[in-house]
């Protein structure tokens, strides 16, 4: 999807933050590039900064999607980056996809 649409979907689904999914708490909705090379660079920046808005900047003109980051505190504590897709979250909660 285009970045502008992803921004709208993040805004429409902010109610998911704090909800439980797959046994973990959603802490953040993060827009990420779908291209594998771009994604790898995005993840390096995100894990270093823990700032999704900063990490996506170089990739705003690429195809993107949205991760629901869960248990964000585990990234710094254990180096574990856990997330769920909006489709996975939709199995347990109301999610706006359009």
Q: Can you describe this structure?
A:
The chain has 98 residues and is of the alpha+beta class. Strands 1-2-3-4 form a four-stranded antiparallel beta sheet. The chain has one domain. A hairpin with a 2-residue loop joins strand 1 and strand 2 (24-33). It is built from five helices and four strands. 41% of the residues lie in helices and 23% in strands.
What order do the helices and strands come in, and which of them pair?
Elements: H1 3-12, E1 20-21, E2 24-33, H2 36-49, H3 52-56, E3 64-70, H4 73-78, E4 82-85, H5 86-90
Antiparallel strand pairs: 1-2, 2-3, 3-4
Question: Which terms summarize this structure?
Answer:
98 residues, alpha+beta, four-stranded antiparallel β-sheet, 4 strands, 41% helix, 23% strand, globular
Rg (C-alpha, Å): 13 Å
**Main β sheet profile:** 4 strands, antiparallel
Query: SS-based structural class?
Result: alpha+beta
Give the topology string: H per helix, E per strand: HEEHHEHEH
């Amino acid at each position: 999807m285009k970045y502008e649409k992803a921004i709208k979907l993040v805004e429409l689904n902010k109610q998911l933050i704090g909800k439980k999914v797959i046994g973990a708490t959603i802490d953040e909705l993060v827009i990420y590039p779908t291209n594998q090379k771009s994604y790898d660079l995005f993840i390096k920046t995100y894990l270093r900064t823990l700032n999704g808005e900063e990490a996506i900047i170089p990739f705003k003109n690429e195809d993107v999607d949205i991760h629901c980051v869960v248990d964000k505190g585990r990234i710094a504590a254990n180096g574990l980056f856990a997330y769920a897709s909006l489709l996975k979250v939709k199995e347990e909660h109301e999610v706006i996809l359009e």
